[in-house]
Fold:
Amino acid sequence: MSLNKLIATRDAFGEELVEIGKKNKNLVVLSADLAKSTRTIEFATVFPERFFNAGVAEQNMMGIAAGLSTSGFVPIVSTLAIFAAGRAYDQVRNTIAHSRLNVKIVATHSGVSMGKDGSSHQSIEDIALMRVIPHMVVISPADGPETKKALRSAIEYEGPVYMRLGRPELPVVTQHINSFNIGKADVLQEGTDVSIITCGIMVHQALKAAEILSSQNIRAGVINMHTIKPLDVEVIHQAARSTLVILTAEDHSIIGGLGSAVLETLSCANIRPPVYRIGVRDVFGESGSTDQLMKKYELTWENIVQAVHKILNRNN
Amino acid sequence: MVQDAELVKRLKKMAAFIRRDSIQMSLKAGCGHVGPGLSWTDICTVLFFHQLRIDPKNPDWLNRDRFILSKGHGCLPLYSALARKGFFPMEKLDTFCQLDSCLGGHPDCLAVPGVEISTGSLGHGLPIAIGMAIAAKSDNKKYRVITVMGDGELQEGTVWEAAMAAAHYRLDNLTGIIDCNKLEIDGPVKEVMNIEPLKDKWKSFGWYVEEMDGNDIEDILSTLERVFGYKEEKPRIIIAHTIKGKGVSFMENQVVWHYKAPDNDEARQAIREIDLALTKLK
Structure:
């Protein structure tokens, strides 16, 4: 894949689903009237007998997926993150997770970066909602290729998985990484001054920020925490030992998401560097283009660079 | 329909044993949904000791019928039936709702052998049943999917999402049974939130509808035969008219017994009544 080619994680998901479906006959896909938006339409076209539309009824869809999984099918349930994690929370919590069912929830259009549909459709709480549920695995891939690998890992894994995808097209940043291990973060860049722990759409922003900081003689490490649960605790402790400060970056509320998970991990660690969180600051989003929203809600590489300057100056 | 008198007698006895277990379990635990357990005990008995094709020696048998207790709070008779069927030892019943017991206040499939799926939050059973019924059809298997819901539970919107979907997918291998005991926690169902006309509602959603006396073993037997023998490609629903607290005079139709454990005297009296009914069968 070309380095310059932009690809949305939901597009990669739709493509890979068809590929996996060719070999894995137990794969079934469910939609709640959003097959086009979630890109499951391709699977539906190739394998109509293994595609089930629940109509606009996300709760029922989760229940149907639960039932299918008990007979050995591997249901991929896809809808917008706001509905997967919000609307159907009780079904995800009390049926799918509680019974530890082999259901894969692929939630698209997460975060404020989903754009113009506005705050009612921008899920800024789903990482928090999903990671607090026992048995649940939470994955947020950084780009198209990682989405494909993560999807395969999620399907191989036995148990419930929540996979968080986005709408915008993203640059490829994981081309040099061949494997995807659930719960094992990828250190994309080593650093000595600051460690940026990030996931999803913010990974490429963090890499860009690290590049700028490097030109200013600030060595920033970048950790792609693609799995938020189970969290790679060791890599966080390593970052705490090797750098002066930690910065987390996510297109999610600063409450309950990746930043909170990192803070929880460090709360009783021996070495506790200051942790600065980049994220949506406990407000609802609004309509706008992805770029406009990322700027307004301070989710860009510039915001990361500014934050690093601010913390390092304060520490000095 | 002529029925085997011995079968009816055997099932009536079993229903009495299950009622006695339920009273003893709730007495020991000091808690339990006794009323909503007793109301569907006769249905539970006919299902587990006559209709369901299940094998306690092979609980994961691929062709087994799938049963979901959507009204998970009504688990007292379910636990008793599973133990008496041989899914786990009878002594386990003494641990109901105690710390470290597999028998919690609502059924947990990871802990209780014979429980297909965890339930407790209302309105979940019918959607799950749809998934299981679709799975059966996709696998060309002949097993049946049966779920028991409460009448108060029908106030949950997901029941109607599922009612729509089961008919849409023409799931003739799915049977829902509504335990209509007419009472929910805050009072009579028709006063809290009226769900009638039930028969018309399910018919208009595209279901085959039957009604029965859900506390009459003979009627349950013949209704289930009719429903399972029905040939059209429609999901089936049975409106079972029942009495909350059935079988214990002072619990019958008393909403207070929705969630309340008997004290020693109450339990003694309840068991005396159940045993008296048993004696009359002999």
Summary: The two ends of chain B are 23 Å apart (CA to CA).
